[in-house]
# Entry
Amino acid sequence: MADDPHPLFETWFNEAAAAEPNDHNAMALATADAEGWPSVRMVLLKGHDPRGFVFFTNLDSRKGGELADNPRAALLFHWKSLRRQVRIEGPVEPVGETEADVYFATRSRDSQLGAWASDQSRPLDSRATFEARYDELRARFEGDDVPRPPRWSGFRVLPERMEFWSDRAHRLHERRLFVRSGKGWSEGLLYP
# Structure
């Protein structure tokens, strides 16, 4: 038994980086709107530490709106090549402006321009409209750094539950559940 799930996550995450052929940092993000209707999509983990798990998005996107109305989320990492998964649940908080700026500056220029050009999750009349917006923004920022759009930032999922699942023969899987208890964690096992 352990008293902190974060070192175990770090070990598994590093092993996934070496084993997964694509996007070892891909995670399913589940949210729900104010009425409780769930929604799930894949996003990329862009940072993690004992405070939580960070991803970035357009704040006006569906997930941004759902997190504004209902700031709780669940994450799922599935590393098929390792036959493992990690489930994380907890409240969500916005990252700070500086953290969002620092990460945005690491993105490729095309991704930065795409963040400006996209009204993420909104109806689009044609691909040509989006490409024209992108071309206009490329010309607008020609020769300059691309600043972070005001509607683009990140969220941190603050884990309250973390479950580590390992595949075993004959469905005799191993499930380790960590639950936040005060400032620490308690660990137990779950039946598969």
